[in-house]
Amino acid sequence: MPYRVVGSATLVPVSEQPSLPGPHDMRASNGDRERFAKVLHDAMAEGRLTVTELEERLDQVYAARTFGELEPLVRDLPNQQLVAYQASLPQPVTATDPARVGGRGTSSSAVAIMSGSERKGHWTIPPTFNAFAMMGGVEIDLTQATFEAAETVIHAFTIMGGIEITVPPDVTVYVTGSGFMGGFSNTVRTQAPPGSPVVRITGMAIMGGVEVKPPKKPKKNKEIQEG
């Protein structure tokens, strides 16, 4: 059996060299999971999946560690082989703004049940944030927030309630949520510069709404001239 030299004294059989992981064994990122989640949301909107099936598969998507665990969740949907392949490709890594990324998350959730809840001002959002509103309202303002990681996922779920998320122009946002007798609204159109924090917003709005919007423009002071 052929051997290879490790260091200066140890011989290891060549056949025992660790093999590189295949595409199915590659670790999935939060962005990869969101791409698969969008496929499932779209399938539900087209009538290919029921709400219950969507919820079951989304639970598996966010629990998946590898592409091998993600791919079976879209295998029975049309034209998803390309989506799975593209998600398995290495994603470009860019430097992030140190002024916006860093520190530990100060709050990981906001819940409003027949009430209100808000996260705004100077705070740090963790890589995963959960917002839930039932017959109430949640307000999330990222204008002055910092981010624990370069990429953040906000799971927004509302039942007969509303969730409002304010995203400033120096943050790139992707919205993939679905609605059932409700919906997701996104009026943030600005693509942030390369290396800016990325926020992915997903979830479900049932008889309610999730609104993603830019910050309000400051009002100009009007000079009152006395005649």
From TrEMBL:
Alphabetical list of InterPro entries matching this protein: DUF1707_SHOCT-like, LiaF-like_C
Superkingdom, taxonomy of origin: Bacteria
Pfam families to which the protein is assigned, alphabetical: DUF1707, LiaF-like_C
Chain residue ranges for the region called Disordered: 1-30
Segments forming domain Cell wall-active antibiotics response LiaF-like C-terminal: 129-185
DUF1707 domain: residues covered: 26-78
Name of the featured protein: Cell wall-active antibiotic response 4TMS protein YvqF
